[in-house]
Design the sequence.
């Protein structure tokens, strides 16, 4: 019946076409891949979150400078150590026409707690209590500083639309990873765009939702035609030849071509994904020696990697937390010093060096294999011979899980845009009971890092919390727990007249609802 | 005839069983599909559960048994990414690839035969020399370079051609979406077809030329000339027809190879066909789709070769399909 309504609307519009055609703006969009599903709780991935911001709205969302702005919440206040109250926006409608109320939030929260991918983000949350139709309380198990960070993941789904059984007798609200489901093929959110047609891997078409609540949004895009274009050069060619209006990501190799074109603009932004290596202390006794680890960190000229290999399209890192994160410690700068590195090796008694194995993916991060090759050469300067193996990500992850090499590459983006997340996954002592350190392939272990990270996760005072997380970064720096390389930048490009600069952000969720096309 | 087809059917089944065994033998090195289906941050227990649900924790033998059990009923499993039966996905992508291959084949036939014949008849003509020189260059340029070059010249610089995708397609017979019935569709297929044909074209020009030269030196051609037949009749009726036999044989094999080359062409032009789909399936460790595709291509090879053999019989009635004594 939804389709019928749209059809009627379409006929009505067709009648007025002669008058409105001049104002109808279509955005032809090309990313490297399309979202695997329309179910925003099926997979925690960039593509699905981008879709969520197009077809749904969160309670609050990130601003460009990593602050928060209200979306479906109109205000929020902390009631006590464990409770934050949100007042909800009135008069918001889902694509189906159902009005949005607190009950939809409650239903969505339960679904998130059941989602394999999202439940991890919500482990510290015990309940979402409905106070009245437009008031909800988010309750945490203990004092928890990241309530607002987490609230950016609460996109209310249309409870009535997703309740009941579909034509196959399956529950419409079910989250299915392996196979199709109602929710993975149908959408009803509160977002600026509705999905009008979709062919997986080929094309998705969106249309602006006529009853969208945010009338103050400057956005004037009526239709989006989203085509995944996998090949970097093809994507750029499609933009420069006028086949599409906006592309992402853009490879550093193509920057020159876009910059010199009179038809398109390039927009880049410092990103928050850290690229680093981990040194396995369990496999190699040498790497247990702090001096050896320091020597390795001092031997890696990550600034040169950023300049030469990344062509300036990254920010050199001395720690995991990028600028803007609470844990970012301005004191911790990159420390390339070959002489110091040689001295440290000598001090440790490894003047003549040794051989280490290294593994890196070759299609996961920007220039990943080239970076690994460069680091291997740099380490040869302190007589560490690197036996390097690079492979596609499909083959790499099983190797990573097996901790199959002495030095392994990993890139990480914090789902909460918060420093503690890096530690929880990358630098805390691996522990299969608590799940901490799941991606700590180096087995780096520091009780200081473990305790302070956990304590920071219960500290709701931002200033105190910042000092704790910065102390953790400093400890990892002193003990050379990891080899930090850089934070990958992000890049988008668009035809002139498509003003993408105001709507793109470091999270890589372009707010297309607010996009203005001249 | 029926005996011949039955034989080929058996052959196809044999080929496909061997392929399926090979696919399962390498399955472990195709990667962990749960990596593409779930976030990095999920716990190892959750990941184990997902693997269990997909049946990836069973031994290879058990998995293979299960696969064969379903395969004989025509079910090759569901694609993880497309969330549909793998065969459905492949059949959906088939028209795009076949049309691309077909368009490239037409280009090859239309260009290589006249050029091959001409260069054979007038080997010292400047045009023949030019053709041969260009074909040497053509054969040594990789297809993706040709493709990128075409995009750069005709789409980016001149703005004449669309640079990606199939454009507007028209549904025929309710299922087959075709590029050949709309201007936009035709425009979109030109560059991919040119790029794809560029690898085979030099080979065929040379093949036609060589065969033609050989036939022209045979006794019966000399005799036909001596008889006073017009040179048109000699070339077209006697020589060309006999030239075509080896060309068709090679062509049959090459069509199969061309389907393989579509992987490159399709990924450069974002052509939504089987080749691109396969490349993506490998990237995503979509094991059921990879297996189904390889088996399907194996089947396609057998079918194409069977058709070529049949065509052979039409062109040269002396060929005995079953291979018995006459």
Sequence:
């Amino acid at each position: 019946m939804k389709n019928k309504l749209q059809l009627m609307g379409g006929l009505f519009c067709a009648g007025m076409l002669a008058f409105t055609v001049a104002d109808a703006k279509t955005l032809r969009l090309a990313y490297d891949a399309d979202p695997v599903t329309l179910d925003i709780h099926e997979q925690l991935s960039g593509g699905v979150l981008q879709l969520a911001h197009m077809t749904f709205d969160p309670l609050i969302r990130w601003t460009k400078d990593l602050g928060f702005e209200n979306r479906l919440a109109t205000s929020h206040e902390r009631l006590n150590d464990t409770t934050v109250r949100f007042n909800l926006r009135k008069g918001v409608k889902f694509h189906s026409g159902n009005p949005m109320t607190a009950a939809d939030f409650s239903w969505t929260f339960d679904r998130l707690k059941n989602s394999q991918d999202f439940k991890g983000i919500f482990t510290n949350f015990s309940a979402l209590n409905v106070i009245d139709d437009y008031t909800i309380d988010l309750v945490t198990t203990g004092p928890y500083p990241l309530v607002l960070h987490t609230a950016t993941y609460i996109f209310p789904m249309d409870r009535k639309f997703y309740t009941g059984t579909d034509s196959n007798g399956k529950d419409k609200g079910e989250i299915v990873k392996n196979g199709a489901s109602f929710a993975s093929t149908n959408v009803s959110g509160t977002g600026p765009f509705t999905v009008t047609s979709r062919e997986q891997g080929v094309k998705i078409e969106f249309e602006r939702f006529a009853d969208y609540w945010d009338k103050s949004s400057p956005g004037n895009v009526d239709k989006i035609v989203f085509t995944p274009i996998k090949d970097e050069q093809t994507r750029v060619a499609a933009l420069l030849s006028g086949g599409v209006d906006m592309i992402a990501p853009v490879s550093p190799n193509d920057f020159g071509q876009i910059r010199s074109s009179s038809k398109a603009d390039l927009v880049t932004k410092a990103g928050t994904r850290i690229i680093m290596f981990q040194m396995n202390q369990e496999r190699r006794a040498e790497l247990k020696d702090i001096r050896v680890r320091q020597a390795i960190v001092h031997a890696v000229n990550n600034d040169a990697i950023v300049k030469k290999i990344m062509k300036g399209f990254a920010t050199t890192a001395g720690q995991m937390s990028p600028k803007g994160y609470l844990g970012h410690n301005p004191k911790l700068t990159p420390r390339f010093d070959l002489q110091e590195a040689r001295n440290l090796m000598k001090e440790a008694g490894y003047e003549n060096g040794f051989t280490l194995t290294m593994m890196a993916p070759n299609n996961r991060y920007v220039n990943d294999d080239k970076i690994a090759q460069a680091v291997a050469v740099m380490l040869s300067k302190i007589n560490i011979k690197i036996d390097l193996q690079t492979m596609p990500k499909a083959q790499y992850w099983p190797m990573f899980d097996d901790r199959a090499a002495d030095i392994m590459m990993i890139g990480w983006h914090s789902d909460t845009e918060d420093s503690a997340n890096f530690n929880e996954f990358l630098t805390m002592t691996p522990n299969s009971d608590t799940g901490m350190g799941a991606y700590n392939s180096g087995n780096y272990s520091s009780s200081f890092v473990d305790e302070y990270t956990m304590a920071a996760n219960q500290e709701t005072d931002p200033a105190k919390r910042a000092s704790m997380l910065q102390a953790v970064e400093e400890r990892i720096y002193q003990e050379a727990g990891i080899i930090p390389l850089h934070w990958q930048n992000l890049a988008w490009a668009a035809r002139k007249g498509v003003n993408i600069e105001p709507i793109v952000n470091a999270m890589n969720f372009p707010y297309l609802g607010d996009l203005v096309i001249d | 005839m029926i005996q011949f087809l039955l034989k080929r059917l058996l052959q196809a089944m044999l080929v496909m069983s061997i392929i399926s065994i090979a696919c399962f033998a390498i399955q472990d090195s195709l990667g962990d599909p749960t990596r593409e289906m779930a976030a990095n941050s999920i716990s190892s227990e959750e990941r184990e559960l997902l693997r269990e649900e997909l049946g990836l924790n069973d031994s290879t033998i058990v998995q293979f048994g299960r696969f064969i059990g379903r395969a004989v009923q025509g079910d090759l499993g569901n694609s993880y990414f497309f969330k549909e039966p793998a065969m459905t996905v492949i059949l959906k992508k088939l028209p795009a690839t076949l049309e691309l291959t077909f368009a490239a084949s037409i280009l090859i036939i239309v260009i290589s035969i006249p050029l091959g014949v001409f260069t054979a008849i007038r080997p010292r003509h400047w045009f023949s020399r030019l053709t041969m020189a260009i074909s040497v260059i053509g054969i040594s340029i990789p297809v993706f370079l040709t493709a990128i070059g075409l995009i750069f010249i005709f789409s980016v610089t001149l703005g004449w051609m669309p640079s990606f995708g199939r454009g507007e397609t028209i549904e025929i017979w309710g299922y087959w979406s075709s590029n050949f019935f709309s201007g936009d569709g035709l425009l979109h297929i030109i560059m991919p077809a040119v790029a794809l044909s560029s690898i085979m074209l030099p080979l065929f020009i040379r093949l036609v030329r060589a065969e033609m030269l050989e036939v022209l030196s045979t006794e019966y051609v000399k005799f036909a000339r001596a008889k006073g037949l017009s040179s048109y009749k000699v070339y077209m009726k006697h020589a060309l027809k006999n030239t075509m036999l080896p060309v068709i044989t090679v062509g049959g094999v090459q069509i199969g190879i061309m389907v393989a080359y579509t992987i490159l062409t399709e990924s450069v032009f974002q052509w939504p066909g089987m080749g691109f789909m396969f490349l993506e399936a490998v990237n995503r460790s979509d094991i059921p789709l990879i297996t189904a595709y390889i088996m399907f291509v194996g089947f396609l090879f057998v079918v194409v070769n069977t058709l070529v053999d049949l065509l052979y019989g039409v062109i040269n009635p002396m060929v005995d399909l079953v291979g018995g004594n006459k």
Observations:
- The mean pLDDT of chain B is 84.
- Residues 231-269 of chain B form the longest helix (39 residues).
